[in-house]
Amino acid sequence: ASKTKCIKNPNDAKGKFEVGVVCTPNHSHELIAQQLAKKCKVVLVEKPGLPSADMWSALCEENPKTFWAVM
After folding, report:
1. Residue 41 needs a FRET pair 20 to 30 A away by CA distance; which of 6, 26, 34, 63 works?
2. How far is Cα 40 from Cα 51, in angstroms, rounded to an integer?
3. What is the structure's pLDDT at 66?
4. pLDDT at 1
5. What is the DSSP string of the chain?
6. What average pLDDT values come out for the chain (71 residues) when binned by 10 residues?
7. Is-contact 15 3, C-beta < 8 A?
8. Cα(14)–Cα(51) distance, rounded to whole angstroms?
9. For residue 8, which phi and psi values (nearest 5 degrees)?
10. How many Cβ atoms are within 10 Å of 22's Cβ, its own excluded?
11. Which pLDDT score, from 0 to 100, does residue 2 have?
12. 45: exposed, middle or buried (C-beta count within 10 Å: 0-12, 13-18, 19+)?
């Protein structure tokens, strides 16, 4: 049975999750995505995602086991 949780601060999340969704003001996407990558197998980031390709590259390199998608 799957469960859905809404957590406002990723640092408050206990345990591991299948999917994390970043749906916040654009300026906070990078920090929240970094936090979620430590707890989730998949992270979905609302558009526009991160400001640059370099930021995406760094995030992917730091978290090679995380699947990323922009929605």
Report:
1. 26
2. 22
3. 92
4. 55
5. -------SSGGG--S-EEEEEE-S-GGGHHHHHHHHHTTEEEEEE-TT-SS-HHHHHHHHHH-TT-EEEE-
6. 70 80 90 90 91 91 92 89
7. no
8. 29
9. -80, -30
10. 22
11. 64
12. buried
Contacts 24+ apart (CB under 8 A), 1-5: none
Q: Which residues pair with 67 in a beta bridge?
A: 42
- What are the angstrom distances between the C-alpha of 57 and each of 7, 12, 16, 29, 42? 26, 26, 23, 14, 16
Integer Cα distance of 48 and 1 in angstroms: 32
In one-letter notation, the amino acid at residue 22 is V
d(CA 16, CA 65): 13
Structure tokens at 21: 């969704």
The total of other beta-carbon atoms located within 10 Å of residue 47's CB is: 8
